[in-house]
Amino acid sequence: MIRFVTGNENKVTEVSEHLDVPVEQFDYDYVEIQADDITSVARAGAAESYDAIGDGDAVIVEDSGLFVHALGGFPGPYSAYVEETIGVEAVARLTADHPDRTAHFESVVAYADGNRIKTFSGRVDGLIVPPRGDGGFGYDPIFEVDGQTLAERTTEEKNELSHRGQAVERFAQWYRTQS
Ligand code: IMP
Q: Of the candidates 136, 142, 141, which has an alpha carbon nearest to the alpha carbon of residue 158?
C-alpha cells in the first residue's frame, strides 16, 4: 500500500493506474512553499507530510504545473493559485494572439520514508488552445498534444503521455526494486 497525500481525487485515479499496489488517499494539507521549481515544492511537501502524519509509513506527494513559454514559464509553480483566481480560460486568452503558443506540463512525485526523500519527474510538451473537451481537470481543456486536448482523452490515454504518468511510472519502477 502506498499513501498518497493529496486532496485531488483525479490525481489518485491517475496514479492508481500505474501502481501495482493499492493507493491510499490521505488528506493532509501540507504547505506549498514558494519556489521557482516544483521539485523543491514536492520535496518540502513530502518531508512535512511524513513528519506531520508521524506513524512511520512512507508517503508520496505530487506537485505539478503548467509552464507557458510565451509568458516566461507563468503560471508554473503558481498554477493552482492562477486556476483558482483568473481561471484556465483566462490563461488561454493571454496567449491567443501570440505567435508562440507552446507550453509544457511538469510533474514531480516525491517519496519520503524517514530515511530519504526521492523525486521522480515527468514532462509533456503541447500547445495552449481555446478550451475543448469534458474530461480530465484543471488546465486539460486548454492543453493540446498531437491535435487533441488532454480533456478530449480518456484517463488511460492521458496517462500514456502525461507528465504525471511519466513521473509516476518512474517512481513505480524504482519502488518495485525496493520490496
Ligand atoms: P498541484 O500540483 O495540485 O499544485 O496543481 C497545480 C495546478 O496545475 C492546479 O491548478 C491543477 O489543476 C493543475 N494541474 C495539475 N496537473 C494537471 C493535469 O494533469 N492537467 C491539468 N491541470 C493540471
A: 136
Q: From 5, 66, 104, give the residue whose CB has the most ligand 1 atoms within 8 Å, as the site to mutate.
A: 66
> How many domains, the chain?
1
Residue 126 CB–ligand 1 contact under 6 Å: no
Question: Helix, strand, coil: what percent of the chain each, to 5?
Answer: 40, 25, 35
Exposed / middle / buried, residue 11 (Cβ in 10 Å: 0-12, 13-18, 19+): buried
Sign of the four-CA dihedral 46, 49, 53, 54: positive
pLDDT tens string 9-24: 988 988 888 888 899 9
- 138 CB near ligand 1 (under 6 Å): yes
Domain limits for position 10:
2-176
pLDDT tens across 133-164, in order? 999 999 999 999 999 999 999 988 998 899 99
CATH number, domain of 65, equals 3.90.950.10
Catalytic residues: 63
140 lines ligand 1 (CB under 6 A): yes
Query: Which among 105, 104, 107 has a CA at the least distance from the CA of 171?
Result: 107
